What we know:
Blueprint: E1 3-10, E2 19-24, H1 48-58, E3 64-68, H2 78-87, E4 91-96, H3 101-109, E5 115-119, H4 127-131, H5 138-146, E6 152-157, H6 164-171, E7 179-183, H7 192-195, H8 203-213, E8 220-222
Parallel strand pairs: 2-3, 3-4, 4-5, 5-6, 6-7, 7-8
Antiparallel strand pairs: 1-2
Amino acid sequence: MRIAGLEKFSTVDFPGSLAAVLFAAGCNYRCFYCHNRHILGEPPLLPEAEVLAFLQKRAGLLDGVVFSGGEPTLQSDLPEWVRRVRALGYKTKLDTNGSRPEVLRALIADGLLDYVAMDYKAPLEGYSPLCNANSAGVPESLALLRGSGVPYELRTTLVPQITEAKLRKMAAAVAADASWFLQLYRPQPGDEAQLRGLAPYTPGEIEALAETLRRVRPNVKAR
């Protein structure tokens, strides 16, 4: 697997678990606000043997491993790596943009995932301006997670372009009992052209939006 980064210890990336995070290189989206944009092209890669040796050493000390990115479902050997990690005794979590439901379906069918976090970027017709890609695969992934029996969460980074009206529209595709997190957007150098003078949401504004959405989707939370 093309591994561009390794976070050796995280208390926040895998709910209820101490975890290591593997960052897969490459993505089929180009979201202007991506906080991992440095690994989307051809970044330096970590030796697979080195990563595996670390996980073997930490087996029994850490609870889980998160496969993140980039977009890990683009990696052809992702299932092999997930199996390898589970054989060491780890629980596994997948972070995905939902664009490859066929990979998600296979991982779930084979019992290889304990948790999934899926980015839900915008109303389906609004992906292209934000991600430079369409929303193909996203509706299928949303439906797949809804009926999978695997614990999951949805995540929406609240860039200024995502208005309350758009969030209400997005809510229609969210299962009534799904955990949906509205995440704070932190501007990065170079984002100015995309913001077009729009001010980022404050934490208080995000909490207010979450409270409004909870009237129709009770498990919406601000993060």
